[in-house]
Amino acid sequence: MVKAVDKTKVPWWVSNAVVPLVNLTLAFIVSGLFIFISGENPYQALKLILYGSFGYLEGIGYTLYYATNFIFTGLAFAIAFHCRLFNIGGEGQAYIGGLGVFLFAFYFSALPVSIVWLLAILASMLFGAAWAIIPGYLQAYRGSHVVITTIMFNFIASALMVFLLVDVIRDRRQMGPTTEALVKEQWLPMFKNIAAYFGYKVGYSPLNISFLLAVLASFGVWFLIWRTKWGYEMRAVGHNTQAAIYAGISPKKNIILAMVISGALAGMLGVNEILGVHHKILVNFPAGYGFTGIAVALMGRNHPIGIFLASLLFGMLYQGGSEVTFDMPNITRYMFVAVQGVIILFSGALENLFRPQIEYFFVNTMKQKAVT
Amino acid sequence: MISQPILELQNVNKSFGHVQANKDISLKVNRGDIHGIIGENGAGKSTLMSIVYGFYQADSGNIKINDKIIEIKSPHESILSGIGMVHQHFMLVENFTVVENIILGFEGEFVFGEKLNQAKESLMKLCEDYNLKIDLNATISDLSVGFRQRVEILKALYRGAEILILDEPTGVLTPQEVDELFKILRSLKEQEKTIILITHKLNEIMILTDKVTVMRQGEIVGEKNTKDTTKDQLAEMMVGRSVLLRIDKRKPNIGDTVFEVKNIDVKDNLDVMRVKNVSFDLREGEILGIAGVTGNGQTELLEALTGIRQVDSGEIKLYGNIISSKNIFFDPRQLREQDVAHVPEDRQRMGLVTEFNASENLIFGYHHQQPFSKSSVMMGKNIYNHSKKIMRDYDVRPQSPFLVTSNFSGGNQQKIILSRELHKDPKVLLVGQPTRGVDIGAIEFIHQRIIDMRDKGVAVLLVSVELDEILSLADRIVVMFDGKLVGEKVNENVTDREIGLLMAGITN
Fold first, then answer.
1. What is the pLDDT of residues A296-342, one digit of tens each?
2. Which of B17, B356, B373 is closest, CB to CB, to A229?
3. For a tag on chain A, would you pick the N or C end, based on fewer CB atoms within 10 A?
4. CA atoms within 13 A on the CB side of A319
């Protein structure tokens, strides 16, 4: 029998690196079985995933482009979660955030580009936050559960956007429900262009400088949560509402604040998608990133570093996965939805499956080392 | 008859984290004895009994019942071995009847029928045998605390308990209810049941037990036949040195009125009126003790005074200004800025964020002030230095500001709160249950700090269910019963009997 070990003796790298890696490996082994059953070679598939996502520059570009979206939505979920709010509404907030980006870029096109970019980024945050503040308010003052209201707001966002795209901001020259494209000067610099500027020739990938914005946002979230009064108060409310009231911290204000920041981060997905890649609003452009962000945040233990790494992993699966489906006819893209599910299962739901054994093993071997 | 051990523990060890809660415990409990286990909180008594009851498993060591080694992996197995436990916090379903609670988990069949009647019959017989007066069809929520405890005892007996473990059974009872409980325990003893009584109250040990085991810091430091020992001796063994059971304090030097409470009514979250037409003054340099059994409105009163709960009618004035009335309401932060310090009744629920590390909790409620934060950025270095200093001053152990608070013992958690609330030299100190679940060494320390504050001219309001605490600290005593203040006494020649009657609502 494995006995529970003294948690304070477990080195940080065991609980934060070894355990997740073991879980991930298991997830890959189980996924490999799926692939084997489908009649393909799991080893070849893994090689394709790795090559497809990190083996050449364009592949890396795609991986990081996907990761950018996951970082925004993952951070959005995480910050609300530190206040114990389950913000399921990242998808809708991102959708509305994208609307903000487009409207500002489109209607302020007379302004200098750098100012338009700044305004568009602010608009993405503002619109995302506005979409989150209503559920936040309802939770804080009316006790309507934020899970329910944010889910409903996803549907409302979706319906609203379809209405706008069909009847209000549609490009009348087009049959489909899309807007006009932004002028080319407003497009965010692509990785390809930046590489070309330094004399490297790289093929197309959707990676653009929003990735840097995501990295910046990660740092900002870390600072906010652990180094500011607001983060301190949000965490206090999240852990123990009664104690927060005792300390003169208003749970209501902090619930709204956490939702606002969460919505703002989700909204920034619009910067990557609208200003960076599509340059116009497509129907349902958030394409599930808002929901996957939940898994990313949980896998990254709601810490910006963890979220960054989990985003890379999911980016790798998206990009490498599409290469595999291209090369292996027996594997459909739904297989990779299943693979994601397995990863979430092992690193989320079954996170503690082998933790006691692993911790026991390391603590024990270290003890023996200390003895000898 | 030669008494033989019914329960024997051999070399039991148990640790949590880096804290060894039980060190090499060997213990024999004889059949038909009332065996007391006494020790400071954190001495490992409750842990030891939780091992016997199967909540925890020992890291090493054996448990023997009737000379046979048994392995207890869960409470279910310990029940089968004839062990019953009455917890400090009762484990009853409030909206079930007594019978329903007792057969819970042992219903036996899918549809209630014959079994339920059988159960009722055997319960009635048990009640008769042990002189337990309980209405089996009463709903738990209608029963007083004393009766609920009887239900727990009956539950254990129904499940065939030969050994009954009681964890701090008198903590929530009035003195009169305690007497009743002791009668029941004696009649159980007459019927050859074995009783293990965990307590930190010396009186109970002296009155009730045959043998007593003293624990300190996870170890057994002595075992005595009760008739061969004295309270002082036991107290000394518990603490490892002699302690003053009564604190020396000077006459109070009373100054101006700080708090004026006038005819306040306070409702709880369920809209039930918990404080009814209460008025009193609190003055500088005195300790006003509010005695009473848990749940008579003390919690809501304290919350109203500290800005957590608004009064429903009446008014509270601080330094002559209204801070709470129907229309005016100051929140805890505003009151803290007016030098009102508050040590809440329930440290885990309210006083601390147990997931925070010690340094984060040491600034809790003051975190928005300089030097802990400047323009909303937390000043890590200042917080660390402050924590280091304060942990040294108040002897918080271990002195690690970054250790997560839940890893500190109850006494040290309480010291974290106390040091935080006292560090800014408050003018008013509102304290609820300052020593609940705190060991004797720390109790002495905490009491001394409270007296020191009084001597410095601070107005102190002490809410406590520990009568001894009120009697040894307060200058004036009021008793709270059913939301009202009954009787006010100057603390000279007041007996615990007198206060006890008031606590039970008997005013004449």
1. 998 888 999 999 999 999 999 999 999 898 888 888 888 888 988 89
2. B373
3. N
4. 28
Could you tell me if B308 lies within 8 Å of chain A, comparing CB atoms? yes
Please provide the average confidence, as pLDDT, over all residues in chain A: 92
Residue identified by tokens 């520990």 is: B466
CATH architecture label of A68-318: Orthogonal Bundle (1.10)
Domain boundaries, chain A: 1-40+328-372, 68-318
Distance CA B141, CA B270 (A): 15
Q: In sequence order, which residues have a C-beta less than 8 Å from that of residue B276 and are 6 or more positions away?
A: B265, B297, B482, B483, B484
User: Which DSSP symbol is given to B315?
Assistant: E
> Angle at which helices A251-267 and A57-82 pack, to 10 degrees?
170
Query: Given an 8 Å threshold on Cβ–Cβ distance, is A228 in contact with B378?
Result: yes
- The Cα of B343 is separated from the nearest Cα of chain A by a number of Å equal to 10
Q: Which residues of A touch B18 (CB under 8 A)?
A: 6, 8-9
Closest of B222, B199, B221 to residue B209, by C-alpha: B199
How far is the alpha carbon of B349 from chain A, nearest alpha carbon, in Å?
Answer: 6
Q: What's the pLDDT at A6?
A: 64
Region of B174 please: left (phi>0), alpha (psi -120 to 50) or beta.
beta
Q: Which of B47, B40, B38 is nearest to B15 (CA)?
A: B47
CB-nearest partner of A246 from B332, B376, B407: B332
Q: Which of B230, B245, B436, B225 is nearest to B344 (CA)?
A: B436
pLDDT digits (tens, 9 = 90+) for B166-192: 988 887 777 788 888 998 899 899 888
> Read out DSSP for A297-346?
HHHTTT-HHHHHHHHHHHHHHHHHHHHHHHH-TT--HHHHHHHHHHHHII
Query: If DSSP codes are grouped into helix, strand and coil, which group holds residue B290?
Result: strand
Q: State the pairing for strand pair B476-481/B484-490.
A: antiparallel
Token pair 């917890």 is found at: B87
Chain A CA closest to residue B381: A227
Residue ranges with strand state E in B319-378: 321-324, 340-343, 373-374, 377-378
Chain A partners of B344 at a C-beta cutoff of 8 Å?
246
What distance in Å separates residue B399's CA from the closest CA in chain A? 15
Q: Do B376 and A230 touch (CB under 8 A)?
A: yes
CB contact under 8 A, A243 and B349: yes
CB contact under 8 Å between A227 and B334, yes or no, is no
Q: At what angle do helices A229-239 and A251-267 cross, to 10 degrees?
A: 110
* Alpha-carbon distance B334 to nearest alpha carbon in chain A (angstroms): 8
| Contact at CB, B352 and A243, closer than 8 angstroms | yes
Contacts of A230 in chain B (CB under 8 A): 376
